[in-house]
Amino acid sequence: MLAVTSALERTVRLFGDRVAIKDDERNITWADTFNRVSRAASVLRSRGVSPGSRYGILARNNFRLAELIYAGYWMGAV
């Protein structure tokens, strides 16, 4: 079974330059998604979210929402 972090790492190795998220604002590659998700996880951690913590997201349906969802999975939050 793959964890989100290892699944993203594998996807970046295989398809890093391919588009991962298409949005009205921009297209984001898997490599950029990986970097943005890891940074978002760090921000959540600095705001007190820890593994097993619950957190909520209030956002428009865009690439930032996807990043925050992945960031929570990345760090083990619910």
What key attributes describe this structure?
mainly alpha, 3 helices
Task: Write a short abstract of this structure.
By secondary structure, the protein is mainly α.
Alpha-carbon Rg, integer? 12 Å
- Could you give the order of the helices and strands? HEEHH
Task: Give the number of helices.
Answer: 3
Structural class: mainly alpha
Largest sheet: 2 strands, antiparallel
Global outline: globular
Number of extended strands? 2
Helix content: 40-55%
Enumerate the spans where pLDDT stays under 50 for 5 or more consecutive residues: none
Beta-strand percentage range: 5-15%
Strand order of the largest sheet: 1-2
Average pLDDT = 90
Whole-Å distance between the termini? 19 Å
What does this 3D model show about the protein?
With 78 residues, the protein is mainly alpha-helical. The protein has helices at 4-15, 30-46, 63-75, and strands at residues 19-22, 27-29. It contains 3 helices and 2 strands. The protein has a two-stranded antiparallel ribbon with strand order 1-2. Helix 2 crosses helix 3. 22% of the residues are buried.
Topology:
Blueprint: H1 4-15, E1 19-22, E2 27-29, H2 30-46, H3 63-75
Antiparallel strand pairs: 1-2
